[in-house]
Amino acid sequence: MTATTSGGRPEASPRPASRLGRVRPDRLLLWAALVVLSLVFALPLLVMLSTSFKSAAEANSLDFTALPLEPSLDAYRSVLTDVPVLRWFINSTLVALLHAALVVVLATTSAYAFARMEFRGKRLLFALVLATMFVPAVILLIPNFLVVNELGWLNSYASLVVPGAATGFGVFFLRQFFLGVPVSIEEQARLDGCDQWQVFRRVVVPLAGPAIATLAVLSFLTSWNDFLWPVFVLFTSDMQTLPAGLAQLQSDNVLRYDLLMAGAVIASVPVLALYVLAQRFIIEGVAQGGVKG
To answer: pTM value?
Structure first.
């Protein structure tokens, strides 16, 4: 309804406040802080990307420039032709995929047993599994090396895939999710004629898709970024993974920052792409995995 003045003329309605004017100051401060933090985290990646497109002389110059004055692909050509980066990339991809798959298989079966089955010593065994999470990985370096050496797995994919696949975090994470699945769903499946294995495979595992995807992504990234263990168990260049291979590239080209940054970009692209594609599953899986303790 339009308001009128004493003279009978319609009074103009007040203009709605702008959307920016309705934003609370604390929200503006929060957004500003998030933008600053995003820039802080993204700055090293941007510098790495910019340096990879510089010439060798410009990359090693003391006069830093944010953008390459003369963009060049020479660093990428040299890395892809003179260094077996593609071989290292294939090795890292294959090892990370196999390791993530093995972690998911072991963690899902173990977590479901701890969440739903009753057996003697269940609490003690679960406590031991949790205790492994507090043991630094470097302490197990020598024992794992001795075991791998006895099995004859040195300088092979098995030495990178199998050790560390039985992770306490994976069991704990998925157990939390399985505890949040209503028991009535499993009971209904049993009434329909499913046995324990069929309930697990056809009912529980599909429901745990986001949590399993989260664990798979985290396991893939852990294996992809692993540096210390491959250095210990791999001895030939054609078996190296990307982190170990890039360390060798750094030792051979200490002053070629363009080559180092080009190799780092190649190693970073799959990780960033995987996180962008799986971000929704990671957030959903983490949120649902902590519902019930």
So the answer is: 0.79
